[in-house]
Design brief:
The protein is mostly beta strands. It is about 0% helix and about 50% strand. Strands 2, 4, 5, 6, 9, 10 and 11 form a seven-stranded mixed sheet that branches. Strands 1-3-8-7 form a four-stranded antiparallel sheet, with no helix packed on it. β7 and β8 form a beta hairpin. The chain starts with a strand and ends with a strand.
């Protein structure tokens, strides 16, 4: 089993930055793909970024150029640096882990964190 815990959310003004952290515990060696999803009020959950164990990353068009995903394998932590935030980025952000390679079109994310709220005011 793997447990994921997000932190780092909060309130920020337009143009500001936040850095989210996703700390994994348990059988962390099982996780190959770690993704950041977000869900805005009244919206479906959507993918924001993926970090694969060997270093590759993927960003959706909505966040490309503003968000950066990184990982510290020694700390079992994946980060999401969010810059140039806008009110459209307001959402609950979740990290999710998969034992297999996932793709931007989907994947079997078996492990989920509880989410952290990000609020961007205009």
């Amino acid at each position: 089993q793997v447990q994921l815990v997000e932190s780092g959310g909060g309130w920020v003004q337009t143009g500001g930055s936040l850095r989210l952290s996703c700390v994994a515990s348990g059988r962390t060696d099982e996780i190959y793909s770690t993704a950041w999803f977000r869900q805005a009020p009244g919206q479906e959950r959507e993918l924001a970024a993926i970090s694969w164990l060997r270093g590759s990353r993927y960003y959706t068009d909505a966040v490309k150029g503003r968000f950066t995903v990184s990982r510290d394998n020694a700390k079992n932590t994946v980060y999401l640096q969010m810059d140039s935030l806008t009110p459209n980025d307001t959402a609950v952000y979740y990290c999710a882990g998969a034992r297999d390679i996932t793709t931007p079109r989907g994947g079997n994310y078996e492990y989920w964190g509880q989410g952290t709220q990000v609020t961007v005011s205009s």
